[in-house]
Amino acid sequence: MRARLVIGPRRLRRDSMEGQLYRRLAPEESGELRLQPQDSEKAKTFVHAFLKRSMPKMKDEAIQDMLTRKAVVLEHYHKKQTKQKRKKTKGFTAKQRRELRLFEIEPEQQRYAIFLPLHELWKQYIRDLCHGLKPDAQPHMIQSKLLKADLHGAIVTVTKSKCPSYVGITGIILQEFKHIFKIITKEDKLKVVPKLNNVFSLELDGFISYIYGSKFLLRASERSAKKFKLKGTIDL
Predict the structure, then answer these.
(1) Cβ(197)–Cβ(161) under 8 Å?
(2) Interhelix angle for 116-129 vs 139-148, to 10°?
(3) Torsions phi, psi of 153, nearest 5?
(4) Digits of tens for pLDDT over the chain (236 positions)?
(5) How far is CA 193 from the centre of its chain?
(6) 2-22 and 40-54 helices cross at what angle (nearest 10)?
(7) How far apart are CA 99 and CA 198, in angstroms?
(8) How many C-beta neighbours within 10 Å does residue 223 have?
């Protein structure tokens, strides 16, 4: 008897709510909403179809259990759109680059005078980067900027090397790779100088900077994000 007293009102309340939900609209209400009146069966069919479209994909028992236990705000259910992975554009492989000879400089182009305008552009680029290279500028600040700067067009000299034949080579850097510099000398000779075990110097507006190649084994694009640590002494 107690169980009937507890369950009975809930059932009555649910039945009354369903009756209100599926009841036929009054003519004045349907006229205000500009709706065509429907009978209770059509209304029930519409509500079930609407819930099926709007509710997440769940079993009917789970939806019914959720509706009987708590109030649900009916709104349009947005399907989660899966993000499509963008296909990365594949560049040339190292083999393809060699076959196409993309990084080779033609013999008729290997002349020092051709690249002097490039050197002038590089000097202006460094002056702008270092805010004019003023006499009172701090050398370590200039050095830190040069370590991350683009060196294509810079005139460098090999000052120290474990291989004596490299010492004294001076010219304009035409290409920089991870392990080597390609330098064109005043004698119109293209030299391939490894960075490892070599020390390079470059001079601009009275400032002389030294580059220790063994600590410089990076591509030009990688050096811009590299943090170089100051060290007292560096071995070749």
Answers:
(1) yes
(2) 130
(3) 105, -10
(4) 333 334 445 555 555 666 666 566 676 666 666 666 666 677 677 777 776 776 666 677 776 776 666 666 655 556 667 777 777 777 788 788 788 878 788 889 899 999 999 999 999 998 888 887 777 777 778 888 888 889 999 999 999 999 999 999 999 999 999 999 999 999 999 999 999 999 999 988 888 888 888 888 888 888 877 776 666 556 66
(5) 33
(6) 90
(7) 30
(8) 16
